[in-house]
Specification:
The complex is a heterodimer of chains A (373) and B (375). Chain A contains 11 helices and 12 strands. With 373 residues, chain A is α/β, with parallel strands linked by helices. Chain B is an alpha/beta fold and 375 residues long. Classes of the chains: A alpha/beta (373), B alpha/beta (375).
């Protein structure tokens, strides 16, 4: 893939906490010699540029396979980048070795989606939360225990449960354990990958509130990844929308939800069911046809063009850059040749409802490829 | 005669830790062509209740009635049930991959299903399978019928499941979290498909989900479950605009849509209860901010509220306190206080912060307190 030159521009005061520049992450497919020559790769993240400012929450939304989790793991440097740069607090950390990374690991922590899979079931909660101290060789002995118990109290766990096992906690409480562990070293940035997706509605709200409280207390920044747009809207200062390895739109929360520019953003928003019957009856839902194409052979030009109701010839040839439109705030970037005007609706006719009782839906060839794992 | 009439359904599972009372007296009525939305969190018994109706809960102790077209499904033999499942009652589950056999071609699996239940000839069944795949919006159905499940995306697999569930034109479709594993854009496709099928064939649908958005979109009636009990039974609009039960209110309030952008979300404090040893009285009382002394001892029956023949709620609060507004909450708090319960803070508009996951049962020991009657 060619690395497009210009990308998202941001005008702002002060240096961002983290700057990702043209980040690319490709996974080679299969190791069998048969395919080695073809060099098939999954284009998980392709030339992504964005900033995270100190103390802010950047939301990252997108559907399965769009590369949002891969991007999160690149930012946390759990993956090496294929190319591109990650600048954290003025230092380029994209090529540091494991050893060199250690001081930065303290400052970037991660919370995972699965509160069951991310905690070792055979270890006691106290030692799980104390792990960051152990790894970095700080706060020994009794000191460590009292630190851990403070953390437990902070996230709303009973400090007396220090010696319990993860299985003795419910899903919501486990996620609190994950939050406590991430907070232990007082990081500047927490990468939260779908932290509430596995939780029930009433518990989701508890964990979201906890994350917000912790943020205002310690002034840390979040990269908050979710597929639930209403939650992202609630927690984020700015939101980036990903599609097939690219950021297609990035903007302040309010701007993105009231004036979406990219047809995909608009379609994604309209697909979210609203918990309000009258609204649900009234509104028009844009139903996209087909599935997300394979990231092994992403469409040429704009990656959304095979499913886009506004697509024209140009979209299949020329890849749009992520940049602000004239008249939009400078931090509202969109990668589209034919962005939506204020209040513009997507043409309904171009998007027949899926599942129409017709023999087959019109679709681009790439639609029939299986989605990537 | 209603299509399905469930009465006092109780399901429990003996386990080494004790008996799990998964469903504790559930009843509802479903007419042809209607959609019943069943909402509840993990462990509320919503899936167990519906799976029991179609005989899919092995090893469970079951009592009650589930009359389908007048015949009780719970007293049927496995053979009799097999003749109904897939024929008159279609089912779609959350995970479409584990519902399809990975070794067999998708078309073959539909053919097998058709031939198991009808006397269709092989090629007629195959033609029908291709037709069904086209009907649920799968492009190039003829070619796709020859492919294996792993070659289908999640949304496509769920379409296959729906095609199979609908193949014999069932009167009832039970959909258990059919869109939970799918992305929102695909979820929108599946919901549209189900609505279309219902409009065309008059299928009744039981839609089980934890997503209140999905329910607002497609249910006619809503049943809210908690700890194996029905908390509230209500038509769609009243469920959202005039709910009675504090649990329903709490669910609606904890949605991000219910709060302004920078506000704390309202949440229900505490954790769902154990089903081995459910709380005394109302199962929701340890998490309820309007708890009254009576709630800890007496289990409230499902009774009519709001002067509406459809609307039922299992709560001791006065039946005319409906809605999600701050004013109604204040009225509820006042009623609870008068009955000797509630918390002083809950009388105010904003709720106390509850970062802790502790269950507020410490204060419930005054069981002998006056049992005031519901005004």
């Amino acid at each position: 893939m060619t690395v497009a030159a210009g990308t998202g521009r941001t005008t702002e005061t002060g240096e961002p906490l983290l700057r990702a520049e043209n980040v690319v992450k490709h996974f080679p497919l299969g190791s069998s010699s048969l395919f080695r020559r073809s060099r098939a790769v999954v284009h998980a993240v392709d030339d992504v540029t964005f900033d995270i400012r100190r103390g802010e929450t950047l939301g990252l939304v997108g559907e399965t396979g769009c590369g949002k989790s891969t991007l999160a793991r690149c930012v946390a440097r759990l993956f090496d980048l294929t190319s591109g740069r990650l600048v954290f607090d003025g230092h380029d950390i994209s090529t540091l070795s494991r050893h060199q990374l250690r001081p930065y690991r303290r400052r970037i922590q991660m919370i995972f989606q699965d509160p069951y899979g991310s905690l070792n079931p055979r270890r006691r909660v106290g030692s799980i939360i104390g792990d960051p101290f152990a790894i970095h060789g700080i706060e020994e002995g009794g000191e460590r225990k009292s630190k851990v118990q403070n953390l437990m109290e902070l996230v709303g766990l009973n400090p007396e449960h220090y010696n319990r096992f993860p299985s003795e906690f419910s899903g919501g409480q486990r996620q609190r354990i994950g939050v406590a562990r991430a907070l232990a070293l007082q990081p500047d940035l927490i990468v939260a990958d779908e932290p509430v997706s596995a939780l029930d509605v009433s518990i989701q709200a508890q964990v979201i509130n906890l994350l917000a409280a912790v943020q205002s207390e310690f002034g840390l920044a979040y990269l908050f990844i979710a597929h639930d747009l209403s939650i992202v809207r609630h927690v984020s200062d700015r939101v980036a929308v990903m599609y097939l390895g690219k950021i297609v739109e990035i903007a302040g929360r309010h701007d993105l939800y009231t004036r979406p520019r990219h047809p995909y953003t608009k379609a994604l928003q309209s697909a979210v069911p609203v918990p309000d019957p009258d609204l649900a009856d009234k509104r028009r839902r844009i139903v996209l046809t087909g599935d997300v194409p394979s990231p092994i052979v992403p469409p040429r030009g704009c990656r959304f063009h095979p499913r886009c109701p506004k697509a024209q010839q140009r979209c299949s040839v020329e890849e749009p850059r992520l940049e602000p439109l004239a008249g939009d705030p400078p931090d509202h970037g969109v990668a589209c040749h034919f962005p939506l005007a204020d209040g513009e609706e997507l043409p309904a006719g171009a998007v027949p409802p899926a599942g129409a009782f017709a023999p087959s839906a019109p679709s681009a060839p790439s639609d029939t490829l299986p989605a990537a794992p | 005669m209603p299509l399905l009439e469930v009465e006092d359904l109780r399901v429990s599972f003996p386990t080494p830790d004790g008996v799990v009372h998964a469903v504790r007296g559930v009843g509802f009525v479903l007419d042809r062509g209607r959609t019943l939305g069943v909402v509840g969190e993990s462990g509320s018994g919503k899936s167990v209740a519906t799976q029991t109706i179609v005989g899919l809960t092995q090893g469970a102790r079951v009592s009650g009635h589930a009359r389908f077209e007048g015949v009780d499904l719970l007293t049927m033999t496995p053979e009799q049930l097999r003749a109904i499942r897939g024929v008159k009652i279609g089912m779609v589950f959350q995970d479409p991959l584990s519902s399809l056999h990975p070794y067999y071609r998708v078309g073959w699996q539909i053919v097998e299903m058709l031939r198991a239940h009808t006397d269709m000839k092989k090629d007629a069944a195959h033609r029908r399978a291709v037709e069904l795949l086209g009907m649920v919006g799968i492009p190039q159905p003829k070619r796709r019928a020859e492919e294996y499940p792993h070659q289908f995306s999640g949304g496509m697999r769920q379409r296959v499941m729906i095609a199979m569930a609908l193949a014999l034109n069932p009167a009832l479709l039970i959909a258990d979290e059919p869109t939970t594993a799918l992305d929102v854009t695909v979820q929108a496709q599946i919901i549209e498909l189900m609505k279309k099928v219902q409009a065309e064939f008059g299928t009744a649908i039981i839609m089980i989900t934890h997503d209140l958005g999905v329910i607002a979109d497609m249910a006619d009636d809503v049943m809210i479950m908690y700890a194996g009990r029905v908390m509230e039974q209500v038509d769609r609009r009243n469920a959202y605009y005039r709910p009675h039960h504090p649990y329903t209110v709490g669910l609606l309030e904890s949605l991000p849509e219910a709060s302004r952008e920078d506000e704390r979300l309202l949440s229900i404090p505490g954790q769902p209860p154990s089903l081995i040893d459910p709380p005394s009285g109302c199962a929701f009382h340890p998490r309820c901010r309007f708890v009254m002394p009576r709630c800890r001892v007496d289990e409230p029956p499902l009774q009519r509220v709001g002067g509406d023949s459809v609307h039922h709620s299992a709560c001791w609060l006065p039946g005319d306190l409906l809605g999600v507004s701050a004013e109604t909450d204040a009225d509820r708090a006042r009623a609870a206080l008068e009955a000797g319960g509630g918390t002083p803070e809950s009388a105010e508009m904003s709720r106390p912060a509850e970062p802790t996951g502790t269950v507020r049962t410490g204060q419930t020991l005054d069981m002998g307190a006056a049992e005031e009657d519901n005004p």
